[in-house]
Structure formats: C-alpha cells, structure tokens
Amino acid sequence: MSANTVLKEVKYKTSLINNRRYLGNKYKLLPFITDVVNSECHNIKTFADIFAGTGAVSSAFIDKIILTNDLMYSNYICNYAWFGSEAYNPQLIIDYVVYYNSLRNIGDNYMTENFADTYFSREDCAKIGYIREDIEDNYKKHNINDRERALLITSLLYAMDKIAKTGGHYDAYKKSA
C-alpha cells in the first residue's frame, strides 16, 4: 500500500461494540446497569469495568475515564481498540481493510493447517491467517502503531464472528469422523 493511495469517499460498513458474539456479553443489561450507576454513584469521574469482556458495559460510560480489565487477550485488544487514547489514522485502517477484503486465492498458513473446515472453511482460514500475519508484520515494521494494530485485529475478530460456523461457542465444535 503506497502512502499516496487515495480512495474515493465511500460509506463503509462498521461494527458496533455489541456486534461481537461473546458468551457473557452484558449489552442487554445496560439499561439496568446504567440506571443503578446513575442513581447510586454520584459525580464519578472514573469507571472501572473489572470483568470487561467485549467492553459493552464500558461503552455506556465513555464520558468517564475508563479502566478495563479482562484475562482474555482478545478482549484486551478489543478494549484497547475501542477505548485506547493513542492517536490512529482512520484512513490507514480503511486502506488495510479494503486491501484485506480484496484478497483471493491465498495459500496455506497456520490457520489452514490447524482450523480449516472446522469453524471456518479452508478459504476463510487462509484469509484469516494471512491477515493476522500481515497485521503483525506491519506492526513489527512500524507501519502501524499499537492502537492501529488493535483496531485491525478487532476488525478481524468481529469479521470472524460474522462468518464462523458456530453460535459463538468455539469449544463446542466436534469434527465428524
């Protein structure tokens, strides 16, 4: 991708924080949670989401300083993408996503070797594996910063959720004999 790449202005499909299929997502509880916080916690400036998961609860408190915590690295990455304070280049993210969406006929990689025809087709695994490796390569080359890396990985995770052959419970897959 060249630095002189110019894209015409296009409306892009974006994800909302609650679009991730995740067991334990508290998005539907937000009215209850926000009502309790607003009635019981006055003049708060900081909101700590100790079991943040996808960050859906934190998203209801973006007018505060947000602290998120979660043991899963994928959740950490998503929360950094959504709530991180590091500057990022939105056009750069768009350019990468447009490029990734254009990919076809990708060879084998870690994903195809380990997950083809399980949660994802072989073709989807090839694309997922290539994209994930490319994000890391560009990060190591300093073509993208920490937040841009997190935004691209988060975009990949959300896209994977959309195409996965599962209801969101990845451990429930059983390959037939």
Shape: globular
Run of helices and strands: HEEHHHHH
Q: Which percent band covers the strand fraction?
A: under 5%
Which stretches are low in confidence, meaning pLDDT under 50 for 5 or more residues running? 169-174
Strand elements, count: 2
- Work out the radius of gyration: 18 Å
Number of helices: 6
Which range best describes the helical content: under 10%, 10-25%, 25-40%, 40-55%, 55-70% or over 70%? 40-55%
Measured distance between first and last alpha carbons: 43 Å
**Helix-strand category:** mainly alpha
Mean pLDDT equals 86
Largest sheet: 2 strands, parallel
Q: How is the largest sheet built, in terms of strand order?
A: 1-2
What can you tell me about this protein's structure?
The chain has 177 residues and is mostly helical. 44% of the residues lie in helices and 5% in strands. The protein contains six helices and two strands, in the order αββααααα. The protein has a two-stranded parallel sheet. Helix 2 crosses helix 6. The chain is globular and about 55 Å long. About 3% of the residues have low confidence.
